[in-house]
Amino acid sequence: MTAALIALSLAFAWSMGAHYTGAVMGMPVAARAISERWALALIAVLCTIGATFASEPVQRTVGLHIVDASRVTLPMALVMVIGAFVLTTIYTYYKIPTSTIQILVFCIAGTAVAAGVPITWATVVKLAVTWVLAPFAAMLLGYAGTKLLQQRSSPQWALVAVGVCASFVLGANDVANAVGVWDMVHVGNMMLAGFAGGAAMAIGALTWGRRILHRVAFEIVDVDRPTATAAQGVQAIVVIAAVTQGFFTSINQALIGAMSGAAIANRREINRRNLFGILKGWLISPVSGFAFCFGAYRIAIALGGG
């Protein structure tokens, strides 16, 4: 069963790697500062480094501070990961940039409620506050950053650099979604878990990442170089600020918030239809995560005769 948990966790990491390509390199690609091929290659490398060396705070949050880890069993951990993996893959297939963090947290909560395991609601509330504040902070900073960059030259290398930073942040922020449960059931250590998850995310970016990358780059906001640089840079700043405090927030939410603020500052057109579609995805991800895992665990118990 431990082997199954590891395999499913890495499959989930693979799915996330594909899901978040647009969130970290969408702006450089949109502004034609880098090709899609090179963008995906940089995501793979920097995501792995970030996951290996900077993900421990959020791994601890997932593994130790959402539910009573001492009462989590391997079957429970499997249901949590299966639910998050299945839902993330569905959203990726339909090209809906949603929040795997919200999906995971509520998959954990749904499983815990079904199993009668206590939940540390204070942690969930703190995470929820972070999720609410991050896109608004990103919007304000995106607006301010674009106004500043409009007065200065914004070279291509600067835009690629902020995409590289965002790729590093992706590994640090999101790998815990897949491997954070390993700490609940004492599988490996955090650096090894980070590396394994980061490598799987890198493979996901390289093999299936072009779908979301293209969607975010070309189908949401019409960007120029100052807008793109401000949006991608602000996203990286907002997310890494949360990671250093042990909280993880949605990279997609931070980017869309920053893109919106930057577009308003630069009087660029916003594709409202796609933007509202993404907002709907964010709203349904917590509900779908909780409901899926609550039901899945109850069914598993019933079939197991327990």
List keywords for this structure.
mainly alpha, 306 residues, single chain
Question: What does this protein look like?
Answer:
With 306 residues, this protein is mainly α. The mean pLDDT is 90. It is globular and about 60 Å long. It is built from 13 helices and no strands. The longest helix is centred in the C-terminal third of the chain and has 32 residues, at 272-303. Helix 1 packs across helix 9 (190-208). The protein has helices at 2-19, 21-30, 36-54, 56-64, 74-93, 100-115, 121-149, 156-184, 190-208, 210-218, 225-244, 251-266, 272-303.
Mean pLDDT: 90
Query: What is the approximate shape?
Result: globular
- Total DSSP helices: 13
Q: Helicity, in percent?
A: over 70%
Total DSSP E strands: 0
Order of helices and strands: HHHHHHHHHHHHH
Low-confidence segments, given as residue ranges, are none
Oligomer: single chain
In short:
Helix content is 80%, strand content 0%. The protein is mainly alpha-helical and 306 residues long.
